[in-house]
Amino acid sequence: MHGIPMLLKDNINTNDRMHTSAGSVALAESFAGADAFVSAKLRAAGVVFLGKTNMTEWSNFMSSSMPAGYSSRGGQVLNPYGADLFVSGSSSGSAAAVAANLGAASIGTETAGSIVGPAAQHSVVGIKPTVGLVSRAGIIPISRSQDTPGPIARTVADAAIILGALTGGDENDPATLASANRFHRDYEPFLDASFLKQARIGIPRHYYKQLDEERLSIMEAAIAVLKSEGATVIDPVTLHIEEHNWNNDVITYEFKTGLNDYLSQLSDEVPVHSLKQLIEYNVNHADAALKYGQDTLIMSNENTLTEQDYLLKKQQYSQAANTNGIDYVLDTYQLDALMLPGDVDGMYIAARLGYPLISVPAGYSSVGVIDSDGDSTKGPFGAVFSGKAYSEPTLIKIAYGFEQATQHRIQPNLKGKEPSAGRTAITDV
C-alpha cells in the first residue's frame, strides 16, 4: 500500500499535526501523543494520510436530536450524490469522502451501523470487522463491547486489502487476544466470485418491512442476482430475537468509563479531561457547542448502573443474541450469511454480538431530491451481508461475487456532468 492516499475518521489518534476531536469544539486543539494502532499499522504499510474526516459528534452519543453527520467542529457532512440525501451513521464523512474520490479509501468506526450504514448510503463498500479483529487502542470510544474500526473503499477488493493491513493482536486492547489464529494478514485470496455457486444465504424478511417500494425493489433485484449466480437463497428466515427491545444501558455505562479514561490522558492544553468537564465546557460555549443539545452526554454522566448490574445486563444481552440471533438462524438453516437492507435497524443484533458485516452497493432509488441545478437525483442504497464471528473470509467472498455480478457503483455528479460508470481502485492510484 506504499503511497496510497487515505483518510481517517476524526476519532482516531495520529501522532502528527492533525487534530483528533471526535467532531467536538472542546477538542479542537487536541493532538495525540501517539498513533492509534490502526494508524501505525497503515503507516507501516506505506499509506499516506491526507486528513481526518468529519463525523457525527462523539460518534452520535451526544444528543438524541443531532442529525447524522453533524459536528460542532466540522458542520454537516453532505452526500456527494445529493446535498439533501441521508448520510447515515457517525462515519458519514469517511464514506462521503471516498464516494467523492477525495482519497483512495478511509477508516471509519462502528458501534451499531456506523460503517455499513454510511457505506450503503454513499455507494461504497464498508467492512465492519468482528470486534477484536482490529485493535481499538488510540480511538475515542463509545463501547468496549461493540466498537471496532474498519475500512471504507470503492471496491470489495480495496476494502479486503486494507483489512489485512489492520489485523493483529495488541496488548493495549485485550479484545484482540481472542482473534489469535483467527485473523488473516491477507484477505485477497477470498476475492472469489465463484463462491456464490455454493453459498447459502438467508433473507430475514422482518428487516425488509419498512422499506419503501423502490428500495424493496432494489433488494428484490439483489436476491434475484444471488439466485442467478447459483446461490441457494432461503427466503424467508426468522430470527427469534427480531422483536427484542434493546436499550442502551450497557453502552451508556461503557461510554462514561471509556471516555473518562481517554480524556484523562489528554494534555493539559486541552480544556476537558472528564465527561463532567466536557458537559460544563459545552454549557459555557453553548453558541458553538450546543446547537442540538447534549442530553445523551448528560444521561451517560448521570448513569448509576453498578458494575454488577452492568455485567448482568451485558450477559443477558449476549445470551439473547447468541441463543436467538445470528448463530441460531445460520445454524438452523445451514446458512453462510444473511442479506439485510442497507439501513441500521437490521444491524443491531450483529452489533450486540460484535459480529462482522459488509455493505456493497446495490442500486439507486429516486427519492424526490432536487440538486443545485434543479435536477432530480437518486440516492444510493446498499445490501449488507452478515455472518458469525470471524466470518470475514466468507462475507468477502459473497460480497465480491455480488459486486462482480452487478457493478452497480457509479461515481457521483460533482461537476455538473453525467455520473460516470467505473470504480477507481487502490491499484489505479
Provide keyphrases for this structure:
429 residues; alpha/beta; ten-stranded mixed β-sheet
What does this protein structure show overall?
Helix 10 packs parallel to helix 11. The strands form two sheets. The chain has a ten-stranded mixed beta sheet, sandwiched between helices. Strand 1, helix 1 and strand 2 form a beta-alpha-beta unit. It starts with a strand and ends in a 23-residue tail after the last helix. The relative contact order is 0.16. It has 13 helices and twelve strands. It is of the alpha/beta class.
Distance between the termini: 10 Å
Order of helices and strands: EHEEEHEHEEHEHEHHHHHHEHEEH
Helix content: 25-40%
Q: Give, in spatial order, the strands making up the sheet with the most strands.
A: 2-1-5-7-6-11-12-10-8-9
Mean pLDDT: 92
| Global shape | globular
